[in-house]
Design a protein that fits this description.
Order of helices and strands: EEEE
Distance between the termini: 45 Å
Oligomer: single chain
Radius of gyration: 16 Å
Strand order of the largest sheet: 3-2-1-4
Number of helices: 0
Amino acid sequence: MCNFGLSVGDTTPVGRYSPQGDSPYGCADMAGNVWEWTRSLKKGYPYDPADGREDLEAKGPRVVRGGSWGGSRRVARCAFRRWNFPVNFLNDLGFRVVVSLALPSSES
């Protein structure tokens, strides 16, 4: 379950569709509600982080994912990818906070 297709008419709070909308892996809020703004420049696949797409100073459109409350069912999935400039998304653009966990040190 997620917020898409103008069914609610605006964004919804995080967790609104949990736990009934969670994936079999326990992931929640991965699609719908707002487009997920990524730091990646629009570039083709295969993904290559060395091709400049992760340059935070570079100009150009960035990738957005996951659909929004105003989008259709077709785009309300975390694998859906499109691009745009932030000025073109007024009330349906967000972001996810991602933390890279450090691996435990083998030294004691």
